[in-house]
Design brief:
The chain is an alpha/beta fold. It contains eleven helices and 16 strands. The strands form three sheets. Strands 1, 2, 3, 4, 5, 14, 15 and 16 form an eight-stranded mixed sheet that branches.
Amino acid sequence: MHRQTATAFLALAVGLAAADAARSQNLVISNARIIVGNGQVIDKGAVVVKDGRIVSVAAGPAPLPVKGVVAINGLGMTVMAGFIDDHRHLIPGRDPASVDKFMKEQAADRMRELLEAGFTTVQSGGDNNAGVLELKHKVESGEIKGPRIIASGQVPTDKLKSEAEVRAMVDKVIKDGADSVAEVHYPAVVWPYNPTEQETRNLAAVIDEAKKLGVEFQVHAVSAQSLVGSVNLGARKLVHSINVNWVTAGEARAVAAAGAQVASITGFGSPNFDVFSHDNQPKFRDGKPWPSGIIDSQGEGQEAGYMPVNLRTLYDNGVAVSYATDTTFDARGALAHELKTLNLVFTPTDLIKIMGPNSAKFVDREKDIGTVEPGKLGDLVVLAGNPFDGYWNLMTAVVTIKGGVVMVDKRGQPNAGKPDVSHGY
């Protein structure tokens, strides 16, 4: 069964790749600062994209223009790899009625907002399984203009009664078309840490079954004990920096030694302003009062301290921290909020690594995205500012390119490349 399913998916992937190549543009970005993402920075150079992939990245002038090539003068601007969100809830609500309403009334606008913020790839965070697959199809077919979607199938192991049931559900979501497995909560009651034997067996089963099928899975771990326990069971992709207690350097080294990654989501703990209202009152990510509205809150906002510091501890001890928001609200506001929180403990150089190659690795796409290098997909964002001058310049996207296609071009528009102060940037 798995070989037949894999063959069908391969045929679909080849077909989609061919369709993308047919839609792609040949383009040249010249005179731009280029942040390659591997530590190299070209002060003034050119990026050439052909048939959807980068063919050259070099200092100096661009090749002479050729008929049919899209030319972008990046003078005074910065080019870097298109942004990746490793865990975002693309569809609010999981019931069929909510999904139907979203598709009819919101999907096009929400996808456009992600592109405008600079995102070219987003992994869903355990949304309605059928809904996110429908959304992915609409984007891939061109019906909706949006970022590349990596669809995660929801497998709520904490609610399933047996290992056999867990394995069957993993098989089903992958057979249905999911690219990965998401929202494996361990344990269901986050604190005090006391998982049941069945929860532990279920987690081990989902890890094993996902590996058999060759897909990635994401474990939702929010305590140091859950983090280490999940890694010991084989987990390698974990969402949420730890928000209920401190991670020690020794625990961080153990996570790094296992080759596990942690997606940031540090903004979960800190308050939002000017996203849900303009009353100067702190809000949680869903608009409820902060800190009382924090899900599974263990205190009066202590999550805001635990999360960035723990993430830095993991990073300093060798863990390849990646970028994720775990949000549903406005893409620009979510980007601003996560970056502001990350900025407490990370430099712009760190952020570029976290948002680029580390995030590409988290979704197992490091061969295709995450850096501006020959052979990679033409996923690029052109920024009005220089991120090395401050994290806020990561919020100045003026052109977003996905697979060699210009998806957003705001050059010449009023306030293009300026952070939107209405979102508290």
